[in-house]
Design a protein that fits this description.
The longest helix has 14 residues. The chain is mostly helical. It contains five helices and no strands.
Length: about 80
């Protein structure tokens, strides 16, 4: 993560502060908690903001089907 992005995230209020680990956990929750309605835009925004890889997400427990659905959007 670049210096500017890190600085911007640290300036935010504490309720919006997010580390890389919490970002991975949030993406996992998005895919696994609500099976009927998945907020794909929020998941994609979080993935692109932190540059998460498919390996990180699979280690966190995101299913293979969900990773394939993300397609080329992740590394």
């Amino acid at each position: 993560m670049g210096k500017c992005k890190k600085r911007t995230l640290h300036k935010a209020t504490t309720s919006y502060f997010m580390t890389r680990e919490t970002a991975v956990n949030n993406v996992f929750k998005i895919f696994n908690e609500n099976k009927k309605k998945i907020d794909l835009k929020l998941a994609m925004d979080t993935i692109s903001l932190f540059g998460l890889s498919a390996e990180e997400l699979s280690e966190a427990g995101v299913s293979y089907e969900n990773l394939r659905a993300l397609g080329s959007a992740i590394d």
